[in-house]
Amino acid sequence: MELFNWNGVTNQSTRNYTCGYCGTPIASEKGWNANRKGLANIDGFIYICHKCTRPTFIDQTEGGKQTPGVVFGSEVKGIPEKEVHDLYNEARSCTGAAECVNGNETLGCRN
Fold first, then answer.
1. In angstroms, rounded to a whole number, what is the distance separating the alpha carbons of residues 34 and 58?
2. Secondary structure of residue 67 in the 3-state scheme
3. Distance between CA atoms of 69 and 57, rounded to whole angstroms?
4. From 38, 66, 96, 104, which residue has the greatest number of CB atoms within 10 Å?
5. Facing residues of 30 across strands?
């Protein structure tokens, strides 16, 4: 994966979060801030992950909602079938999946 080189990055207040792209727990202070038109207070931040260099938006007007959010579940190593591994990772990243269940022989999602 190629890393991004972001332009115009400034120092923000440090924020701890888990990157929604690579899953790394980080504390980042690099990115941008934003306010709503006509208002002075800061309402949003975009932080850059220092591992994968992808951006995360933090919306202060939504109680600090993070986009993209943290991927559901944990990475599973040792799945021998590539199709099953890919399906599992796709299910983890689906925003509509409320609960994913995996076991030794089964893999499925239910809402």
1. 10
2. strand
3. 9
4. 66
5. 11
Among candidates 94, 95, 81, 13, which has minimal Cα distance to 47?
A: 13
Question: Are 56 and 17 within 8 A, CB to CB?
Answer: yes
pLDDT in tens, 64-83: 899 998 877 777 888 888 88
d(CA 104, CA 86): 16
HEC letters along 69-91: CCCCCCCCCCCCCHHHHHHHHHH
At 88, list the tokens.
């599992």
Q: Is this structure's pTM higher than 0.85?
A: no
Instruction: Pull the structure tokens for residue 22.
Output: 């690579």
Q: Can you tell me the distance from the alpha carbon of 78 to that of 67, in angstroms, rounded to the nearest whole number?
A: 29
What's the Cα-to-Cα distance from 1 to each of 65, 102, 110, rounded to whole Å? Answer: 27, 28, 31
Structure tokens belonging to residue 56 = 């995360």
Q: In the chain, where are the structural domains located?
A: 10-67, 72-111
Interval 91-97 mean pLDDT: 65
